[in-house]
Amino acid sequence: MAPLVETFHPARLGQHVQYLTNGKIRKPPVDLKQCELKELIQYECDLRGPKEDPRSKIVCEPVLRLFRN
Amino acid sequence: MIRGRCLFRLPSIERVSLRTRLTKPIRRASTQPKPQPTTTTTTTYPKPRSLTRYLRTSPRLSLTYSFTKYFLASALLLHIFFEYFYVLELAWGISMLPTIASANDWVLISKLYRRGRNLHVGDVVSFKHPDKMGEYAVKRIVGMPGDFVVEGTPGKGGSGRMLQVPMGHCWVIGDNLTWSRDSRTFGALPLALVTGKVVRVFSFRQGWRKLNHGLQPAYAESDALD
């Protein structure tokens, strides 16, 4: 069973980043815009066409995930 | 006779005693009689024979013994190799499309990364499923302990809220976001359940191929995200 965690709106990410997991203030403070931007591509794949038809194809559309590192 | 039907004929005591070498010279009987002990009673036990002595006398037993010895040693070595170094497993399911095919793809798992050792965001890991007992799953790590991640699928409705991955846990998502049951379903995954990292994928049609790490420097402009 995963532990219960608090969720927050992405607009408040800048405030939450300033705290460590144990509740203490992070030193030095973090500026997200100064962190390196990275990306990870994942996909949304689905079957195009009827399931029984052998000519049906799986089509994957990319989904971009962005990270601050 | 029962002895005749035995699989391994054990040597009789008489035969063994005949083969023993004499360590002391035979003492000839002297003219004067030896003084006999008066009233002491002694108990004699049969001399214990070692295993090697049995094996020397029976070639069939020796063959069985050496076969068992090498079989156990090789089984132990294989167990250590598969449990602590590398293992090749057949993967099935559509949750990691198109990185890993839905069938007939084998994944080479490095056990050097078990329990979350030296793992990073973007690595594809194998782990014991937290909800289904006895089942294993393969997903990609999106968040390590202390990282902030989106709770649902990015840009696809949902609450769109974020959370911080708790210590000792990681956030795993399948590459096929539509058909994957991952941390969006069962929450943060304990690192203790991670059994290894997928380093290679093998299929008979494409051969060996290296698994891409996934996380790369972004092409998007940083200013465009404001």
Automatic annotation (TrEMBL), chain A:
InterPro entries: Mitochondr_Som1 (IPR024645)
Domain of life where this protein originates: Eukaryota
Cellular component terms per the entry's GO annotation: mitochondrial inner membrane peptidase complex
Protein name as it appears in the record: Uncharacterized protein
Organism: Friedmanniomyces simplex
UniProtKB/TrEMBL annotation, chain B:
Cellular localization per UniProt: Mitochondrion inner membrane
Chain residue ranges for the region called Disordered: 24-47
SUPFAM superfamilies the record matches: LexA/Signal peptidase (SSF51306)
Record-annotated membrane-spanning stretches: 63-84
Keyword Hydrolase found: yes
Species of provenance: Friedmanniomyces simplex
Name of the top EC class for this enzyme: hydrolase
Keyword Protease applies: yes
Predominant subcellular localization, coarse grouping: mitochondrion
GO BP term, example: signal peptide processing
Pfam families, sorted: Peptidase_S26 (PF10502)
GO molecular function, one term: serine-type endopeptidase activity
Family: Belongs to the peptidase S26 family. IMP1 subfamily.
Keywords, comma-separated and alphabetical: Hydrolase, Membrane, Mitochondrion, Mitochondrion inner membrane, Protease, Transmembrane, Transmembrane helix
Entries under InterPro entries matching the protein: LexA/Signal_pep-like_sf, Mito_IMP1_subunit, Pept_S26A_signal_pept_1, Peptidase_S26
Boundaries of every Peptidase S26 domain copy: 73-149, 164-201
Cellular-component GO terms for this entry: mitochondrial inner membrane peptidase complex
Domain of life: Eukaryota
Protein name in the entry: Mitochondrial inner membrane protease subunit
Biased composition (Low complexity): 31-47
Active-site positions on this chain: 95, 139
EC number: 3.4.21.-
